[in-house]
Amino acid sequence: MKTFLVYLLISYPLSMAMAQFEPNYDERQVPEFKIPDPLTTFDGKKITATSEWENTRRPELYQFFEEQVYGKVPGKLDSLSFNMVETSDDALNGKAQRKQVEVSLFKNGKSLDFNILLYLPKSRKPAPIFLGYNFYGNHSITDDPNVIVSKAWAMDSEEFGISGHTLTEASRGVRVHRWALEKIIDGGFGLATIYYGEVDPDKNDFSDGLHSLFYMESQEIPKKDEWGSIAAWAFGMSRALDYLETDPDIDASHVVSFGHSRLGKAALWAGASDTRFAGVISNDSGCGGAALSKRQVGETVGRINTSFPHWFCDNFTEYNENEEALPVDQHELLALIAPRPLYVASAEDDQWADPRGEFLSAHYATSVYDLYGTKGISDTKMPEVNSPVQNTLAYHIRTGKHDVTEYDWEQYIDWAKRFVAVKP
Ligand code: GCU
Fold first, then answer.
1. Ligand 1 pocket: which residues have CB below 6 Å?
2. Mind telling me which residue stretches traverse the membrane in this protein (predicted)?
């Protein structure tokens, strides 16, 4: 009896803690909640005109996401500079131009460099661009032997031959399948990509990366309402856009921020925080990205803040196991991008990212697209797999797992031709 009691005393709290983190995939277990209305202000005023959205509602929503979710950028850079490191007119069998540009950021006597790898179609100048981060270095997205291997910290991966947190030739081309480079070029678009680890290494350590440049004296970590890694990656995308604006081969008024998964979260925040981005693509971005948090399906706020304590600002932990207290949800992040083109995509086997929550989020952001007279996802019923719904706000769910596929890119290119960079 005594041992049983001891067992209960130990195992009960443990199993409760585990239960908290047991992901739910059952629609019947989704808690009831009221979806916050993008077109009603926090103090209850109805928004009926785009001017009210732009002057009142959008700023208050933006401020909430900035201070309570992703975190504020604490100040401005002192300066930045661009340095063309390498270029060739004979890339991809002569179809494309390749450029490798080093961007240097300066602040408080410190600096940080990151490199943009660019492929531009020779057939279209200036070219509209897809700009997105990669997970394992610029050299991982192509077999092109001329792409420089990054010296920045990398996540070890047995599969890709990465150890000692160092990238080598072993990982050249390992992510070719995620970047339909030829299709992008043939479609008349350029691709700009950056290794995300150069902007902020993806680890719970705030001593390195972009954050460290902005610290006040003796500051070691961001304040509670200051940026986590997602906001730092988004900031990096904006600085890349600063470069793109200077390059005459690029049509910087038609740059689409693109990202997969955690980098899809960053692409969304970049699009929300920098309206120079002409469009945004969220590929399987899930929790803290396109998926509604209040559904608590798959990954939850508590879970993501525990596994990745460096991604969001500290204030966001207020909502761990407490999603009902959120006065916003992620459809309002999507709405911050309106009326610019936005593509939300899911994968059928990526239940962790809650495809239905990603779809509903696009649906509930639609009222703001409507306000502008642009089309979104008005249907409440999810489309069949591999049956994209493409409007200014687009959505698809494809078969397969958490990944970026040729199929995804085919849809993005088609859609971007119709809604982002229409050929004259
Ligand atoms: C984890 C994490 C997700 C994230 C994903 C990724 O699965 O829980 O939130 O999107 O990694 O970036 O691949």
1. 261-262, 286-287, 299, 304, 307, 352
2. none
